[in-house]
Specification:
- The protein is an alpha/beta fold.
- The protein has a single domain (8-357), classed as Aldolase class I (TIM Barrel, Alpha-Beta Barrel), CATH 3.20.20.70.
- It is 30% helix and 24% strand.
- Strands 1, 2, 3, 4, 5, 6, 7, 8, 9, 10, 11, 12, 13 and 14 form a 14-stranded mixed beta sheet that branches.
Length: 368
Protein backbone atom coordinates (compact mmCIF):
# COMPACT_ATOMS: atom_id res chain seq x y z
CA UNK A 1 0.00 0.00 0.00
CA UNK A 2 1.29 3.48 -0.92
CA UNK A 3 0.66 5.72 2.05
CA UNK A 4 -0.48 9.29 1.39
CA UNK A 5 1.59 12.26 2.47
CA UNK A 6 -0.03 14.67 4.96
CA UNK A 7 2.26 17.50 3.93
CA UNK A 8 5.05 18.35 1.51
CA UNK A 9 8.73 18.53 2.42
CA UNK A 10 11.14 20.59 0.33
CA UNK A 11 14.69 21.78 0.82
CA UNK A 12 15.45 25.30 -0.36
CA UNK A 13 18.41 25.29 -2.72
CA UNK A 14 19.08 29.05 -2.67
CA UNK A 15 18.62 31.98 -0.32
CA UNK A 16 16.00 33.40 -2.68
CA UNK A 17 14.03 30.16 -2.57
CA UNK A 18 14.12 30.08 1.24
CA UNK A 19 12.92 33.68 1.31
CA UNK A 20 10.03 32.71 -0.97
CA UNK A 21 9.15 29.77 1.30
CA UNK A 22 8.95 32.11 4.26
CA UNK A 23 6.93 34.73 2.41
CA UNK A 24 4.39 32.31 0.93
CA UNK A 25 4.42 29.63 3.70
CA UNK A 26 1.31 27.37 3.61
CA UNK A 27 0.18 29.06 0.39
CA UNK A 28 2.77 26.94 -1.44
CA UNK A 29 1.01 23.73 -0.38
CA UNK A 30 -0.19 21.83 -3.44
CA UNK A 31 -3.28 19.73 -2.67
CA UNK A 32 -3.24 16.18 -3.97
CA UNK A 33 -6.24 15.05 -6.02
CA UNK A 34 -9.02 14.00 -3.64
CA UNK A 35 -10.37 10.47 -3.43
CA UNK A 36 -14.05 9.61 -3.31
CA UNK A 37 -15.56 7.40 -0.65
CA UNK A 38 -19.14 6.28 -0.14
CA UNK A 39 -20.23 6.51 3.50
CA UNK A 40 -23.34 7.38 5.48
CA UNK A 41 -25.53 7.40 2.38
CA UNK A 42 -23.43 9.92 0.45
CA UNK A 43 -20.27 10.21 -1.63
CA UNK A 44 -17.50 12.23 -0.01
CA UNK A 45 -14.32 13.71 -1.43
CA UNK A 46 -11.39 13.18 0.94
CA UNK A 47 -7.96 14.75 1.11
CA UNK A 48 -5.36 12.00 0.88
CA UNK A 49 -3.63 11.82 4.24
CA UNK A 50 -6.51 13.23 6.24
CA UNK A 51 -6.48 12.69 9.99
CA UNK A 52 -9.08 11.46 12.45
CA UNK A 53 -9.55 12.92 15.94
CA UNK A 54 -11.75 11.35 18.60
CA UNK A 55 -12.20 14.60 20.54
CA UNK A 56 -10.85 14.00 24.05
CA UNK A 57 -13.45 15.35 26.43
CA UNK A 58 -14.23 12.78 29.11
CA UNK A 59 -13.45 15.25 31.91
CA UNK A 60 -12.55 18.91 32.11
CA UNK A 61 -9.01 19.74 31.12
CA UNK A 62 -6.32 19.60 33.79
CA UNK A 63 -4.91 22.96 32.66
CA UNK A 64 -6.38 26.25 31.52
CA UNK A 65 -3.85 27.44 28.96
CA UNK A 66 -4.17 31.12 28.21
CA UNK A 67 -3.98 30.33 24.47
CA UNK A 68 -6.50 27.44 24.47
CA UNK A 69 -8.00 27.04 20.99
CA UNK A 70 -11.06 25.31 22.49
CA UNK A 71 -12.07 28.64 24.03
CA UNK A 72 -12.21 30.35 20.64
CA UNK A 73 -15.47 30.66 18.72
CA UNK A 74 -15.68 31.66 15.08
CA UNK A 75 -18.10 34.33 13.93
CA UNK A 76 -19.88 31.63 11.91
CA UNK A 77 -19.55 29.03 14.69
CA UNK A 78 -22.40 27.36 16.51
CA UNK A 79 -21.21 25.48 19.57
CA UNK A 80 -18.02 24.34 21.26
CA UNK A 81 -17.43 20.62 21.70
CA UNK A 82 -15.33 21.43 24.77
CA UNK A 83 -18.53 22.35 26.62
CA UNK A 84 -20.03 18.84 26.37
CA UNK A 85 -18.42 15.98 28.26
CA UNK A 86 -18.53 12.34 27.15
CA UNK A 87 -20.95 11.03 29.75
CA UNK A 88 -21.95 7.62 28.32
CA UNK A 89 -18.87 5.52 27.58
CA UNK A 90 -20.65 2.46 26.07
CA UNK A 91 -22.63 4.68 23.69
CA UNK A 92 -19.53 6.69 22.79
CA UNK A 93 -17.37 3.70 21.96
CA UNK A 94 -20.18 2.00 20.03
CA UNK A 95 -20.46 5.20 18.01
CA UNK A 96 -16.68 5.26 17.48
CA UNK A 97 -16.83 1.78 15.96
CA UNK A 98 -19.78 2.81 13.80
CA UNK A 99 -18.20 5.92 12.30
CA UNK A 100 -14.82 4.32 11.52
CA UNK A 101 -16.00 1.14 9.81
CA UNK A 102 -16.76 2.89 6.48
CA UNK A 103 -13.09 3.99 6.38
CA UNK A 104 -11.63 0.49 6.60
CA UNK A 105 -8.53 0.09 4.37
CA UNK A 106 -8.35 3.88 3.92
CA UNK A 107 -5.13 5.17 5.59
CA UNK A 108 -5.89 7.69 8.31
CA UNK A 109 -3.66 9.64 10.61
CA UNK A 110 -4.79 9.38 14.23
CA UNK A 111 -4.57 12.64 16.17
CA UNK A 112 -5.41 12.22 19.86
CA UNK A 113 -6.29 15.74 20.90
CA UNK A 114 -9.16 17.96 21.91
CA UNK A 115 -8.90 18.75 25.61
CA UNK A 116 -6.58 16.43 27.59
CA UNK A 117 -6.72 12.76 26.60
CA UNK A 118 -4.68 11.57 29.61
CA UNK A 119 -6.89 13.34 32.16
CA UNK A 120 -9.22 10.34 32.44
CA UNK A 121 -7.11 7.17 32.23
CA UNK A 122 -10.10 4.79 32.09
CA UNK A 123 -11.47 6.56 29.03
CA UNK A 124 -8.06 6.59 27.30
CA UNK A 125 -7.45 2.90 27.95
CA UNK A 126 -10.87 2.00 26.55
CA UNK A 127 -10.27 4.27 23.57
CA UNK A 128 -6.99 2.51 22.77
CA UNK A 129 -8.62 -0.92 23.15
CA UNK A 130 -11.47 0.06 20.81
CA UNK A 131 -9.10 1.47 18.21
CA UNK A 132 -6.94 -1.67 18.39
CA UNK A 133 -10.02 -3.82 17.76
CA UNK A 134 -10.92 -1.64 14.79
CA UNK A 135 -7.42 -2.07 13.39
CA UNK A 136 -7.98 -5.83 13.50
CA UNK A 137 -11.09 -5.22 11.38
CA UNK A 138 -9.14 -3.32 8.72
CA UNK A 139 -9.05 0.28 9.92
CA UNK A 140 -5.59 1.65 9.05
CA UNK A 141 -3.80 4.29 11.13
CA UNK A 142 -0.52 5.00 9.38
CA UNK A 143 0.48 7.57 12.01
CA UNK A 144 -0.62 7.84 15.65
CA UNK A 145 0.12 11.03 17.59
CA UNK A 146 -0.93 12.09 21.08
CA UNK A 147 -0.89 15.81 21.91
CA UNK A 148 -0.79 16.15 25.71
CA UNK A 149 0.16 18.36 28.62
CA UNK A 150 1.42 15.22 30.35
CA UNK A 151 -0.74 15.52 33.48
CA UNK A 152 -2.23 12.02 33.34
CA UNK A 153 1.11 10.50 32.41
CA UNK A 154 2.57 11.85 35.66
CA UNK A 155 -0.21 10.44 37.85
CA UNK A 156 -0.87 7.24 35.86
CA UNK A 157 2.52 6.29 34.36
CA UNK A 158 1.20 2.91 33.18
CA UNK A 159 -0.59 4.84 30.42
CA UNK A 160 2.80 4.98 28.69
CA UNK A 161 2.78 1.18 28.52
CA UNK A 162 -0.72 1.16 27.01
CA UNK A 163 0.33 3.76 24.44
CA UNK A 164 3.47 1.76 23.65
CA UNK A 165 1.42 -1.41 23.12
CA UNK A 166 -0.93 0.58 20.90
CA UNK A 167 2.01 1.55 18.67
CA UNK A 168 1.92 5.30 19.22
CA UNK A 169 4.14 7.00 16.64
CA UNK A 170 5.08 9.88 18.92
CA UNK A 171 3.93 11.87 21.90
CA UNK A 172 3.94 15.68 21.62
CA UNK A 173 4.41 16.99 25.14
CA UNK A 174 3.51 20.63 25.76
CA UNK A 175 5.82 22.76 27.90
CA UNK A 176 5.96 26.51 27.31
CA UNK A 177 8.95 27.46 29.46
CA UNK A 178 11.91 25.90 31.22
CA UNK A 179 11.05 27.85 34.41
CA UNK A 180 8.08 26.19 36.12
CA UNK A 181 6.77 29.51 37.48
CA UNK A 182 6.67 31.13 34.05
CA UNK A 183 5.26 27.96 32.52
CA UNK A 184 2.46 28.01 35.11
CA UNK A 185 1.54 31.57 34.15
CA UNK A 186 1.00 30.38 30.57
CA UNK A 187 -0.37 26.83 30.92
CA UNK A 188 -2.16 27.35 34.25
CA UNK A 189 -2.33 23.76 35.48
CA UNK A 190 -4.82 22.93 38.18
CA UNK A 191 -3.01 23.22 41.52
CA UNK A 192 -3.45 19.50 42.22
CA UNK A 193 -1.52 18.52 39.08
CA UNK A 194 2.04 17.40 39.95
CA UNK A 195 3.23 17.86 36.34
CA UNK A 196 3.33 21.63 36.87
CA UNK A 197 6.55 21.14 38.88
CA UNK A 198 9.77 20.78 36.88
CA UNK A 199 11.02 17.88 39.02
CA UNK A 200 7.88 15.86 38.27
CA UNK A 201 8.01 16.87 34.62
CA UNK A 202 11.65 15.71 34.36
CA UNK A 203 10.85 12.39 36.06
CA UNK A 204 7.87 11.85 33.75
CA UNK A 205 9.89 12.58 30.62
CA UNK A 206 12.61 10.20 31.79
CA UNK A 207 10.04 7.42 32.25
CA UNK A 208 8.44 8.13 28.87
CA UNK A 209 11.77 7.87 27.04
CA UNK A 210 11.86 4.17 27.84
CA UNK A 211 8.59 3.56 26.03
CA UNK A 212 7.68 6.31 23.56
CA UNK A 213 9.15 8.85 21.15
CA UNK A 214 8.82 12.20 22.94
CA UNK A 215 8.70 15.53 21.14
CA UNK A 216 8.58 18.74 23.17
CA UNK A 217 6.14 21.39 21.99
CA UNK A 218 6.68 24.99 23.07
CA UNK A 219 4.27 27.81 22.23
CA UNK A 220 6.15 31.06 21.64
CA UNK A 221 4.89 33.96 23.79
CA UNK A 222 6.18 37.34 24.89
CA UNK A 223 5.75 36.16 28.49
CA UNK A 224 7.74 32.98 27.84
CA UNK A 225 10.03 31.95 24.98
CA UNK A 226 10.33 34.94 22.65
CA UNK A 227 13.92 35.38 21.44
CA UNK A 228 16.61 33.17 19.98
CA UNK A 229 18.62 33.21 23.26
CA UNK A 230 15.39 32.04 24.96
CA UNK A 231 15.09 29.26 22.38
CA UNK A 232 18.68 28.11 22.89
CA UNK A 233 18.30 28.11 26.67
CA UNK A 234 15.11 26.05 26.39
CA UNK A 235 16.87 23.62 24.04
CA UNK A 236 19.72 23.14 26.53
CA UNK A 237 17.15 22.36 29.23
CA UNK A 238 15.22 19.95 26.98
CA UNK A 239 18.43 18.20 25.91
CA UNK A 240 19.27 17.73 29.57
CA UNK A 241 16.01 15.77 29.91
CA UNK A 242 16.99 13.53 27.01
CA UNK A 243 14.64 15.17 24.51
CA UNK A 244 15.93 15.10 20.95
CA UNK A 245 13.11 16.81 19.04
CA UNK A 246 11.52 20.19 19.88
CA UNK A 247 8.95 22.27 18.01
CA UNK A 248 8.46 25.98 18.67
CA UNK A 249 5.04 27.13 17.53
CA UNK A 250 3.82 30.62 16.84
CA UNK A 251 0.34 31.21 18.22
CA UNK A 252 -2.01 30.45 15.32
CA UNK A 253 -2.90 33.48 13.27
CA UNK A 254 -6.55 34.38 13.84
CA UNK A 255 -6.77 37.43 11.55
CA UNK A 256 -10.07 38.61 12.98
CA UNK A 257 -11.94 35.39 12.27
CA UNK A 258 -12.97 34.71 15.89
CA UNK A 259 -15.30 36.44 18.32
CA UNK A 260 -13.28 38.65 20.68
CA UNK A 261 -12.81 37.32 24.22
CA UNK A 262 -10.09 37.16 26.86
CA UNK A 263 -8.37 34.34 24.96
CA UNK A 264 -8.19 36.17 21.61
CA UNK A 265 -6.96 39.26 23.47
CA UNK A 266 -4.23 37.28 25.23
CA UNK A 267 -3.16 35.57 22.00
CA UNK A 268 -2.74 38.85 20.13
CA UNK A 269 -0.98 40.57 23.03
CA UNK A 270 1.42 37.65 23.52
CA UNK A 271 2.06 36.76 19.88
CA UNK A 272 5.71 36.26 18.90
CA UNK A 273 5.88 36.34 15.08
CA UNK A 274 7.97 33.54 13.64
CA UNK A 275 9.70 35.62 10.94
CA UNK A 276 12.22 37.45 13.18
CA UNK A 277 13.21 34.16 14.79
CA UNK A 278 13.75 32.52 11.41
CA UNK A 279 15.75 35.54 10.34
CA UNK A 280 17.92 35.24 13.44
CA UNK A 281 18.52 31.51 12.95
CA UNK A 282 19.26 31.76 9.24
CA UNK A 283 19.40 35.30 7.82
CA UNK A 284 20.32 33.62 4.54
CA UNK A 285 20.83 30.03 3.53
CA UNK A 286 24.58 30.51 3.40
CA UNK A 287 25.01 32.28 6.74
CA UNK A 288 23.07 30.53 9.51
CA UNK A 289 23.72 31.33 13.16
CA UNK A 290 26.70 29.29 14.45
CA UNK A 291 25.57 25.88 15.59
CA UNK A 292 22.43 25.85 13.42
CA UNK A 293 21.94 24.00 10.13
CA UNK A 294 18.89 24.29 7.87
CA UNK A 295 17.40 20.88 6.99
CA UNK A 296 14.27 21.71 5.00
CA UNK A 297 10.74 23.09 5.05
CA UNK A 298 7.34 21.45 5.44
CA UNK A 299 4.19 22.81 3.82
CA UNK A 300 0.74 21.84 5.06
CA UNK A 301 -2.68 23.04 4.05
CA UNK A 302 -2.71 25.62 6.85
CA UNK A 303 0.82 25.53 8.35
CA UNK A 304 4.48 25.99 7.47
CA UNK A 305 7.52 24.53 9.29
CA UNK A 306 11.27 25.05 9.04
CA UNK A 307 13.52 22.22 10.22
CA UNK A 308 17.00 22.69 11.68
CA UNK A 309 19.74 20.72 13.38
CA UNK A 310 21.07 22.34 16.54
CA UNK A 311 23.78 20.39 18.34
CA UNK A 312 22.18 16.93 18.73
CA UNK A 313 18.58 18.11 18.42
CA UNK A 314 16.04 18.38 15.63
CA UNK A 315 14.38 21.78 15.99
CA UNK A 316 11.23 22.84 14.16
CA UNK A 317 9.71 26.32 13.90
CA UNK A 318 6.04 26.35 12.95
CA UNK A 319 3.48 28.95 11.95
CA UNK A 320 -0.16 28.35 11.06
CA UNK A 321 -3.29 30.17 9.98
CA UNK A 322 -6.79 29.43 11.22
CA UNK A 323 -8.36 31.34 8.29
CA UNK A 324 -6.39 29.08 5.92
CA UNK A 325 -7.70 26.07 7.84
CA UNK A 326 -11.26 27.37 7.55
CA UNK A 327 -10.84 28.11 3.84
CA UNK A 328 -9.73 24.53 3.23
CA UNK A 329 -12.64 23.22 5.31
CA UNK A 330 -15.05 25.33 3.26
CA UNK A 331 -14.22 23.44 0.06
CA UNK A 332 -16.07 20.30 -0.98
CA UNK A 333 -13.03 18.22 0.05
CA UNK A 334 -12.91 16.89 3.60
CA UNK A 335 -9.59 17.82 5.20
CA UNK A 336 -10.07 16.15 8.59
CA UNK A 337 -12.49 13.94 10.52
CA UNK A 338 -13.52 14.75 14.09
CA UNK A 339 -15.74 12.60 16.28
CA UNK A 340 -17.30 15.11 18.64
CA UNK A 341 -18.35 14.24 22.16
CA UNK A 342 -22.05 14.23 21.21
CA UNK A 343 -21.37 11.50 18.62
CA UNK A 344 -21.36 13.79 15.58
CA UNK A 345 -18.79 12.94 12.91
CA UNK A 346 -17.80 16.15 11.17
CA UNK A 347 -15.10 17.55 8.93
CA UNK A 348 -14.73 20.60 11.16
CA UNK A 349 -13.99 21.49 14.78
CA UNK A 350 -17.51 22.95 14.89
CA UNK A 351 -19.86 19.94 15.32
CA UNK A 352 -22.56 21.71 13.28
CA UNK A 353 -20.31 22.25 10.26
CA UNK A 354 -19.36 19.76 7.52
CA UNK A 355 -21.42 17.03 9.20
CA UNK A 356 -21.05 13.50 7.83
CA UNK A 357 -23.20 11.66 10.36
CA UNK A 358 -25.03 12.29 13.63
CA UNK A 359 -25.69 9.79 16.38
CA UNK A 360 -29.21 8.45 16.48
CA UNK A 361 -31.13 9.40 19.65
CA UNK A 362 -31.25 6.56 22.13
CA UNK A 363 -34.78 5.31 22.94
CA UNK A 364 -36.04 6.28 26.36
CA UNK A 365 -36.01 3.49 28.91
CA UNK A 366 -39.46 2.00 29.54
CA UNK A 367 -40.81 1.83 33.04
CA UNK A 368 -41.63 -1.66 34.39
Amino acid sequence: MTLPSRNQFRVAATAAELARFREQAWRLYEPAPPTELAAFGQHWRLRPGLTFTPFANAVRCTAHCAFCSEELQRYDGHQLTARRLIDDYPAYFARLREVLRPFRHWPLGLSLSGLEATAEPRWLRELLATLTALEAEGVVFDEKVLYTNGSGLATSPDLALALQDFGLTRLELSRCHDDEGVNQQIMRFNRNQPIRHNAVYAHTVGWLHGHLAVKNSCILTRLGIATLPDVERYLAWAAGLGVRQVVFRELSRLEGSYLPNVFTDWIEQQRVPIEPLLGAVAPTLDAPRPGWKYAGSTFGYYYYNEHYRYQQLEVIFETSSYPALQAANATNVLQKLILHSDGTLAGDWDPDSRVLSRAQPQPAATQP
